[in-house]
Amino acid sequence: MKILMLVPFLPINQMSGGQTRWYHLIKYLSKNHQITVMSLIRGDRDKETAYLPEIKKYCDKIMVFDRPKSPWTLRNLLLTLVTFNPLVVIRNFSMDEKRAIKKELDENKYDLIHAETFYVMPHIPKTKVPTVLVEPTIEFSVYKHYVDSEVPFFLKPIYLFDVIKLKYWEKRYWWQADRLFAVSSEDREVMKKEIPGKNIGIIPNGVDVSYFEEKKMAKKSPPRILYHGDYKWMQNVEAVNILIKDIWPKVKKELSDVKLWVSGRSVPPQILELAKKDKDIVISESLKDNRDAFKAASVLVTPIMSPGGTRLKVLEAMASDLPVVSTPIGVAGLDIKKGKHALVSSDFDELAKMTVKVLTNQELAKSLAKNGKEFVAENFDWQSIVKKLERVYSDLLTRKNK
Asked: Are 351 and 327 in contact (CB under 8 A)?
């Protein structure tokens, strides 16, 4: 098949979340299909385009388009205020990309369009080419959680109006897609309530277990508690703040010889400031190989409280033989067995106790690591996930051609 794949950011293997997901989907789909990718540039153009040679190996064609580095441009704010478009749609829209997609569809015969995230959909012109939309996270749920928990009360009405707009457009594009998918059963249930009658499937996230098995590393000494993520996502910023302020002090009280390791991309200034005040907090920004974190840490702690998201950090930790301690939201959609594949609690005191337990009980740590790795190998292998996606493609085209 000839597939036009639209993603909001460049597919990059060494990033967390959606970018890793898109990389692996394209990598394995390319074995049997011709893939054209169109993507926005998320941040620094020179830095991001350095990754293009890697993804080009799997694409017939890839085209990238700029968007403002900051969402808070005067243009974006004015359009948000005077139109019914939410900020996330305005910020991630490129007229150049819209023109390029129209030209590509006019000049080439594509079997289908695969869109990842609803806010790439405004770029698609009117077309008879069927569209598959996968929603890696439910944006209005994430944004509403942020408004409820972080925004001052006197600003809430302004932000909540943007939530209303976001929900309207998200649901509109869900209806518009020929086939619609969530990445977890929890997200699918939310979507079914919002758009009853629409057939919604699940294309989960995955992990390349063999890739994580390739690298052998010794654990850091003293032991390190890891949080890994892309901090441009508010879920990660909230979670790492909880870890540093509500869980880490309780762990330190029980264990003096341990470090907290915050790794990933775009670590926010407030986290860097907190780390300056505590010599036992280690920051590693933009590691070249994320296996260096997962393999060298002693436990991954993910106190995620915001809904949505891809949970890839949990899958990658498990593939790396790294025990996981998490909130229920942090492992939502993975169908793990609590106590067997990970230790799970919504109580911060309990999460601290669980972390101490993993660090002091070698048998428990080994059991969690072994069970977690077997679990992801059996249920979240990328090759089996892509085979499921290919069946979706074939079914969609069969029904279209009847």
From this structure: yes
Task: Report helix, strand or coil for 38.
Answer: strand
Positive or negative, the CA dihedral 89, 92, 96, 102 is: negative
Backbone angles phi, psi at 54, to 5 degrees: -70, -45
**Domains annotated on the chain, with CATH:** 2-206+381-401 (3.40.50.2000), 209-379 (3.40.50.2000)
The pLDDT tens digits of the residues spanning 209-232 come to 888 999 999 999 999 999 998 888
Single-letter amino acid, residue 25:
L
Q: Strands 34-41 and 259-265: what pairing? A: unpaired
CB atoms within 10 A of CB 23: 23
Q: How far is CA 230 from CA 16, 216, 242, 269, 286, in A?
A: 6, 24, 16, 14, 9
Tell me the whole-structure pTM to 2 decimals.
Answer: 0.84
Rg (alpha carbons) of the chain, rounded to whole number? 21
User: Which whole number is the average pLDDT over 201-214?
Assistant: 90
Residue carrying the six token digits 């569209």 = 131
